[in-house]
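Expect sequence, tokenised fold; for instance:
***
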Amino acid sequence: MPTDQNERPITGPEHQLAASQPQHKFASVIVWIVLLLVFAAAIGTVTPIYTSSITSQVNGIVTAVHYKEGQIVRKGDSLIDIDDRSYRATLLQAQGTLDRDEGLLAQGQMNAERYREAWARRAIPKQTLDDQEKLVLQQQGTVKLDQGLVRFDQIQVDYCHIAAPITGKVGLRLVDPGNVVQSSGALTLAVITQLQPITVIFTIAEDNLSPVQQRLRKNAKLSVDAFDRGAQKKVASGMLLTLDNQIDTTTGTVKARASFENKDAALFPNEFVNIRLLVDTLHDATLIPSSAIQHNGQAAFVYVLQDDTAHMRSIKPGVTDAGMTEVTGVSPGDVLANSSFEKLQDNAKVVVSGGKPAPGPASGNAAGSKSP
């Protein structure tokens, strides 16, 4: 015992161990109960909902290019004009043929009506009326054929004036006025990519697929956050749209698609991003530092400190993130050993260093993740 009355022993007599069991100092932490957010992390690729590669449907010379490189175009905006004079001439010829045959049909129908009146008076033989009625049917078929030719030629004329099929951003100019284009489709005239909204395709490990499916079956809206390549800055937030219909057997993952409004155009097509999918929210989850968990084969356990004694207690770990793990098997407020595990054993006497256990999470919620 110290001789100075102002000095005090580190431990009282009731905490002393036998000479063969020296006491050791241990760091400790307190078990916290929090609102835990369960995430699934993955790497994704920004994928537009629509990407339109425009090619020519007719042969001709480009007469005008109306878009500017990088321009945001609206559906129906004029993009490219192709010389349509030859197609208009063909259309005019088809319309003339249609007008002629429509006149012949009208004349045949008028004669057929006269023959019916004459047949009613028995002024002509029945064969004459039958022949005229069949002639009218032939003329009706001819008119339908002419109408089809007119519509076809009109479509050819319309193909000469290319408009944007979707709203999006047009890429670099690929043709210039004076270029000759063919209907074979070998030359792309313009590429339009929809930016708002936009999607991200990422993969989910098959081990994590079950909880995601359970949430989707309940029609839950699962939020998705996209982070930059370094996973430090959140770029955008969106919602999970759907999962693919099969697992890739080579990787053991299934593809998922999430939608983002992308109003600020922060997500760029084909960009690689880090994805965090909020799978579930665990209320009143018990959270401890991952460093306090020890393993013995497949079993996990912790040392609970009570009355300066370490007690081994089995636990079941759950999701882990940022050095914290959700567990079952301990109670909120329990003090756990967090160092010098090589000196610990069940029912061993201990001394807590530092006086107070290390604090847990500062806020009332924490985020957890499952690796993809």
The chain has three helices and 24 strands. Confidence is low (pLDDT under 50) at residues 1-22, 362-366. The domain at 13-40+282-370 is CATH 2.40.420.20 (conserved putative lor/sdh protein from methanococcus maripaludis s2 fold). Residues 114 and 129 are 9 Å apart (CA to CA).
